[in-house]
Each structure stands twice: as C-alpha cells, then as structure tokens.
Amino acid sequence: MSATMLEVDRVALKVGERWLCCEFGMRLAGGECLALLGPNGAGKTTLLNTIAGLRQPSVGEIRIEGRALAHWDSLALARCRGVLCQHQGDHFSSSVLQTVLVGRHPHLGRWGWEGEADESLARAALREVGLEGFEARDVLTLSGGERQRVAIATLLTQAPRLFLLDEPSNHLDLHFQIAMLDLFRRRADEGCGVVMVLHDVNLAARYADHVILLDGRGGVKAGPRDAILREDLLSDAFGHGLRRFDCDGRMVFLPE
pTM, whole model, 2 decimals? Predict the structure, then answer.
C-alpha cells in the first residue's frame, strides 16, 4: 500500500460568518488523484489553499506526509508540494524559459543559480506541455492557454511530490485539457499525489480516485469517486438535476 501523502483531519472552513464546510476527513495516498467539486462560491479554492498551507483551517488539521503543516519548514514544504493557481499574473517581461526556471528556486541555495541540470528539467517540462520552441518567447505575448501551459511547466520543473491544482484546465482548448489532465494522471500513476479543483463532473469521473463535493451551503461529502459521483448527491450540490449514463465503461453525467 502506498504511503499517505495527504490527510485532512476533522477540518472545517469558515469565512466571515459563513461556514464553507462542516468537519470532514479524508486521506490521499501516493498514486491517487483527488477532485474538488462544487458550485461557484462553494469554497473549492479556499479548501485547496488550506491544504496548501496558505491559510489556516477554522477547525482541524492538515497533514502532508504525516506532518502537520505548522511543523513544515517553508522551503521543505515548497519542495514537497507545488501549487497551480487559478489565474496567472505576469507583471513584467520575461522569457518563457526564465519563467519556467522559477520552479527550481526551492531546490537552490540562498545565493544559488540555475545550472545545466535545472535548465534541462525546464526544457523537458516545456516539451511535456507542447511548448518546445517557445523558450525565448516573452510571456507577455502568449495567449491565455499558452500561459496556462507555461504555469504547468513551471510546476513540473518544481518537481513536487504533491500537486495542488486550481482549475488546471483553465483557458485550455479540448485537446490540451485532456493532454494536461492525462499528464497529471501519469504523475499520480508514478506515485505522486494530485489534488485538483474541477468544474466538469465528467472530467472528475474520468481522472479522480476520490472526490470532495461541496454544496455551497456548508455541506461536504468526501470519499471514493463512485461513492460521491451519484445522481442524487450531484443534483443536490449543483441545484440542477443530473443523470448518469454508462458509455464504453465510463460514467457520464448529463443535465436533465
């Protein structure tokens, strides 16, 4: 059995006077993928940021590789878990290669510089996301989808053991949505942990082993994919009826 990568222990989240989710727990092992689902404003990004250690849970504790987040050194945590944000902000001109090399910073000393091995990792990551030949391009000239793939390449260059992804398919066309989610599924199959915020129930059905479903009213369901991706639970959470169909061995959900 794979080692535990992530534990959510009796966690609840509150923003202002509103509870985003009541207390719940779950466990993610290396080699598994977890999808966070729910309607807009339900708290998916807030929960992901809490798992990443970017904010404190209102109740409970998050542990990565058996250690509470409060006990991690920030540099060691940056080597262990990587975060893909929902939006990429570019405030100054930089080449694509320079941008992707930022992913190596947790692995360098205080005054360290990227070497040939770091550059090799960055170039390999750009090939993985279909951006070979873009190394010298200015990130300010890229489309939204190209910039998203640069962000994914930066995360791959960081080489964490736990990937935390906020809408990884954001800005991507259908081809690259599937290609990038296939990429992270391969990382999970190689032993990493993957947590991703998704809006598409069918992508969660295709890629996830576990699901956390927030209903936007403080309710939360967490468990194996097939136990959570049910017509009744999804319809209640999203406020619209969903029907399940089986197609070539895969579950597919369509709105009523």
Answer: 0.95
Residue 246 is which amino acid? Answer: D
Q: What is the mean pLDDT of the chain?
A: 95
246 in a domain, yes or no?
yes
CATH of the domain at 67: 3.40.50.300
Rounded to 10 degrees, what is the CA torsion of 115, 182, 197, 246? Answer: -170
Tallying the residues shown for the chain, one arrives at 256
Q: Angle 44-26-8 (CA atoms, 0-180°, nearest 5)?
A: 70
Q: With beta carbons less than 8 A apart as the criterion, state whether 122 and 108 touch.
A: no
Inter-helix orientation angle 144-158/116-128, to 10°: 130
Domain that holds residue 227: 4-88+162-255
Tell me the pLDDT tens digit for each residue of 178-220: 999 999 999 999 999 999 999 999 999 999 999 999 999 999 9
